[in-house]
Design brief:
2 domains; 175 residues; 12 strands; SH3 type barrels; mainly beta
Length: 175
């Protein structure tokens, strides 16, 4: 059954914003990469400073965040999407360990690509990729005063990546 809404966390360079997003049956990644929509409309929103994510500084019924200002976005609970809703579900992909830096946010995890993940592929992804948000699975996120693991993954805004490197040799094909 398609997901109608998801509780998500949006990390900007200075804030952690949590709320409910109406997905209309899409995956979060599809929503974030949909160029027809430039904002994230949230309901039941909580805002905290990134350096003290546990202390809520503002609560609002509704709020809007421009997608360009989102550094990392993830669902608080993972929801499975049926393969029939995922047109590329059975594409053979390679898994690559990566390390990314976005200002004071660091992410270690795994990216999956259909091609060789060499320096040209890294450049293409950062400079010319059509997708604005890319998934990093098995993510370990480090922000000021907080580290957390998100095994199901996070969506990283390509525009904000200051540094990306392939760190390991996990070349295992994934379906």
């Amino acid at each position: 059954m398609p997901t109608k809404e998801a509780n998500i966390v949006v990390l900007t360079f200075f804030h952690s914003i949590t709320g409910y997003l109406a997905l209309g049956g899409q995956r979060l990644s599809d929503f974030l990469n949909d160029r027809r929509e430039t904002v994230i409309r949230l309901q039941d929103v909580s805002v905290a400073h990134l350096n003290n994510a546990a202390q809520v500084i503002e609560r609002n019924e509704m709020a809007v965040i421009h997608k360009d200002h989102a550094v990392i976005v993830f669902e608080t609970q993972q929801t499975d999407t049926a393969s029939s809703r995922r047109p590329y579900a059975f594409t053979l992909k390679q898994a690559h360990d990566v390390f990314l830096i976005m200002e004071s946010v660091e992410v270690r995890g795994v990216m999956h690509t259909a091609s060789k993940f060499d320096i040209l592929e890294l450049h293409r992804m950062i400079a010319t990729s059509g997708e604005k948000f890319v998934p990093v699975t098995q993510a370990k996120v480090t922000i000021p005063k907080l580290d957390f693991n998100k095994p199901s993954g996070v969506m990283v805004n390509v525009q904000h990546i200051h540094y990306i490197a392939k760190t390991g040799a996990s070349e295992t094909p994934k379906l």
